[in-house]
Please model this.
Amino acid sequence: MRLPPLAPSSLTPRQRPLYDAMRAGVAARYDLFTTMREDGAMLGPWNAWLHQPEVGTAFRGATQAMTAFRILPDAVRQVAILAVGALRRRLPLQLLFSFQM
Model:
């Protein structure tokens, strides 16, 4: 089941601070794909986080911590992301190994 996107005008006082905190970061880091509708409603995991702002705030904090305290070099981290994506989407692993680093 998909959660309906939440337009900024429909956010509750509990949801608004999380939306404001996420909006700039999402726009700056994820500009290669659509993360927001024209009315400002966030898409993807950020929309789900807004539906439960207490959980969303915790996920956002964990995501920020994992991003800030990287153990793997960027190239290795990107390969890991692609490998997980390939497995989750059941894509042929040949696609993964066709990327140039």
